[in-house]
Amino acid sequence: MKAIFVYSLTMLKRFLRDPIYLFFVFAFPLIFLFIFGTIFGNSSDVNFNLALINHADNDFTTSFIEKFSGGDNQTFEIDREITDLEVAKEKMSRGEIDSIIELPESFGEVSESCQTKAATPADCLPSGEMKVFYDEGSPQAGQTISIIMSGILDEMNVAVTGTTPRFKVDQVSTGAAGLSQFDYTFAGLFSYVLMTMGIYTLSQQLPSEKKTGTLRRIKATPFRPWQLLVGLSLVYLFLTIISAALMIAIGVLMFDFQMRGSWLTLSIFSIISTLTMIGFGAIVAGAAKNENQATMASQLIAFPMMFLSGVFFPRFLMPDWLQNATSWIPLTPVGDGVRYITTEGAGLIDILPQLGLVAVWGVVAYVVAFKVFRWE
Predict the structure, then answer these.
(1) How far is CA 120 from CA 19, 55, 116, 125, in A?
(2) pLDDT at 196 over 80
(3) What would the mean pLDDT of 154-174 be, rounded to a whole number?
(4) Which of 2, 139, 149, 249 has its CA 20 to 30 A from that of 376?
(5) Which tens digits make up the pLDDT trace of 281-316?
C-alpha cells in the first residue's frame, strides 16, 4: 500500500503540472454547467413573446392595452413593431413569437341597444371577444396564453358587472417550494461528469504511458498491475472529487441549485460511483495498445450509457422493454441515485438498490481490469 500511495502522489503532482490536462479535467465540465445552467436557469417566470393586433378604437380598449402591457407585466413581452396580422402569422410560423392576440373592432364597445328605452344595465356595459392564435405545430404556448387571458377577462367581467361568479377554482399551495428544471438537469450533468472523469481520462492515460515506454520501466520493478491500477484510481478519484466540488459550488452560487438531500450521502454515493466508472476506464486502459484503440473502446462503453441511462433523456419516454434493459447499465443507477438524493432528499437506505448495483458493477469492472491488463 505504501508503494501505491507513493505512486499516486507522484502521478498527481505530474498531472497538476500540466495546464492543458487541468483545463479538460476542471474547466471543461464547468463549461457544460454554464451552458445547461443558462438554458435551464432557476428563473421561475414564464415569458411569452406576443404580437398584439388592435383593430378597436375606443377608450376601454386603450385602457386595457395600457394595463396589459404595463411595466409590472412579467409574463408577456409584446412586439410593438408588429401591427399587421399576416406579418404576425408569418413570424409565428418561424417561431419568432409564441402567439397572436387580436382585438376586433367591436372589442370594448357598448351595444347600440343601450341608447333605447328598453335598454337594461347589462346592455350599457362594454363587451367583446378577443382572438388568440396558436401554431398547429406547437399549440402549447397559444393554449396556455388562452387560459391566462380567460382568467384576465374573468376578472374584468367581475370588475365591470360587479357580480361574483357562483363557481370558482381555489388554488392551494402544497407548502413546499418546487424544484426548477436546472435542479433536475444538474443531477444528470453531475452523473455524466462522474462517468467521463472515470472512463475517458484513465483510458487515455495508460495507453500513452505504454507508447512512451514508461510502463515497461515500471514493469521491471516489483510493482504489480493491481497496484498500478489502484494507484491511478486514487489519483482520478481525488481529481473527480475536486471537479465535482467545483460544479456544486458554481451550481449553488450562480444558478441557485437546491440540494434536498444530505451532502454526506451525496459524497459517499459519488465516491463509490466514481470508483466504479474508473474501473471501466481501467478495463479500456489496461487492454488497449494505443490511444486510438482506447478512444474507440471508451466511446463504445460511454456512448450507450450517456444516451440510454436517463442522464440527458428521460427513460420513461422509451419503450417498456428498453426501460427494463437499460435499468441495468452502470450509469443508470448512478444517475437515479444522484437524482434521488439531490431532488428527493433520499438517504443511503433509500438508494440501496442503486448503491448495490453500482457496487456490483464496480467489483466486476476491477476484476476484469486486473485480468486484461498488459504492460505493453
Answers:
(1) 82, 27, 9, 9
(2) yes
(3) 59
(4) 2
(5) 888 888 887 778 888 888 888 888 888 887 777 777
Give the 3-state secondary structure of residue 78.
strand
Domain with CATH 3.40.1710 in the chain: 48-161
Beta-bridge partners for 49:
77
Query: Are the beta carbons of 291 and 299 closer than 8 angstroms?
Result: no
Closest CA to 282 of 315, 235, 324, 248: 235
The owner of cell 440510454 is 308
Counting Cβ atoms within 10 Å, is residue 129 exposed (0-12), middle (13-18) or buried (19+)? exposed
How far is 257 from 265, CA to CA, in rounded Å?
17
Give the CA dihedral 164, 169, 174, 176, nearest 10 degrees.
-70
C-alpha cell at 248: 456544486
| CB of 207 closer than 8 Å to CB of 289 | yes
Cα gap 339→183, rounded to integer Å: 9
Extract the C-alpha cell encoding 114: 343601450
Tens-digit pLDDT profile for residues 113-124? 776 766 666 667
> Burial, 342: exposed, middle or buried (Cβ in 10 Å; 0-12, 13-18, 19+)?
buried
Q: What is the CA radius of gyration of the chain?
A: 30
Q: Residue 208: its pLDDT value, please? A: 76
Separation CA 180–CA 162 (nearest Å) = 39
Task: Say if residues 125 and 104 touch (Cβ distance below 8 Å).
Answer: no
Residue closest to 291 by CA, chosen among 203, 197, 199, 198: 203
1 CB contacts (<8 Å, ≥6 apart)? none
Please choose, from the candidates 375, 208, 367, the residue with its C-alpha nearest in 3D space to the C-alpha of residue 294.
Answer: 208
Tell me if 335 sits within 8 A of 188, measured CB to CB: yes
CATH code for the part of the protein at 48-161: 3.40.1710
> Quick check: helix, strand or coil at residue 222?
coil
* Structural contact between residues 248 and 257, judged by C-beta atoms closer than 8 angstroms: yes
